[in-house]
Amino acid sequence: MSTEAAAGRRPAPRDDLVAMEGYHSPQVDVAVRLNTNESPLGPPEAFVRELGAAIAGIEWNRYPDRAATGLRTAIGGLHGLGPEQIFAANGSNEVLQSLCLAYGGPGRRVVTFEPTYALHSHIARVTSTEVVTGRRTDDFAIDLDEARRTIESAQPTITFLCSPNNPTGMVEPEEVVRAVVDMATAVGSLVVVDEAYGQFAPWSALALLDEERPLVVTRTYSKTWAMAGARLGYMAGPTWVVDQLDKVVLPYHLDAVTQLAGTIAVAHLAEMEARVATLVEERGRVVAALDDLPVTVWPSGANFVLFRPDALDGDHVWSQLIDRSVLIRNCASWPGLDGCLRITIGTRDEDDAFLAALTEILT
Known about the structure:
The chain is an alpha/beta fold. It is about 40% helix and about 15% strand. The protein has helices at about 5-10, 45-55, 70-80, 90-105, 120-125, 145-155, 175-185, 240-250, 255-265, 270-290, 315-325, 350-360; strands spanning about 30-35, 85-90, 110-115, 130-135, 160, 190-195, 215-220, 235, 295, 305-310, 325-330, 340-345.
């Protein structure tokens, strides 16, 4: 059979996937990699030793605990919640996917407020859920009149918030989150507050969780827990949401090693909090240095900083940084982020290398 004939018999993907592109972050061989908001500092050595010892006791011929009860109990203990209020998955992105599988789908809509985390809309579309976009203000805040108009018009089943917002770094004020939850409740919408960077922020929507309120909070071990390699995330929320997610997630989706890693990490809470404090202090130093350069900088409550060169094109600056073996995130083509770049806070040496390279390019 000819290649042309074989190609003609290939099954076609869904029509709505044909024009869709995958979500990817550039992986470039550079000396300084500050583009994916990973922790520049690894977990404590004691955690590594304890995990290694625990792995030796795994019964590899047996499936892991499908309910991940030990892990969910440990996570719930962090927030004063029971395991029945926690859903754990392979990264917070699988949590978001499970939410869209349970509450999205054909004929349903989600609302996002752009610019925000691209995977909120991407995952929704992958699950054949329509995406309706509300616009943020010029300073990237949520305008409550715009939020009300968008939610009442779209009648979404899911309303996404992100705090601190990726890629802007802004923390949504409590009064804004409360107002959006009230708007969403009125139309039967579940509010998902993505707090992948929540431990860096001064307040958390976890404080608003209630069994009757249609609100959930998602978090990840990738950032503050320095465990991006483990691919572990979770959701905290009402039991009735957790019950629905348990229906759509694949059986035995969390392997035994991931469950052990997440459970053991919780015992090292003090080290995590110290690591966060170190990065927050370093973030302040980087922002102060950026303030001395010809760039516009936005305030951040996360482990990254968004900025825009005042005179040079963002794409050009990003390429020039690559030439100097420094990789940051190019947001210049994202909705509402013309010319913007985002730097992950790294070690002091990594950040100094970035600042030196950026200074050379801009001055």
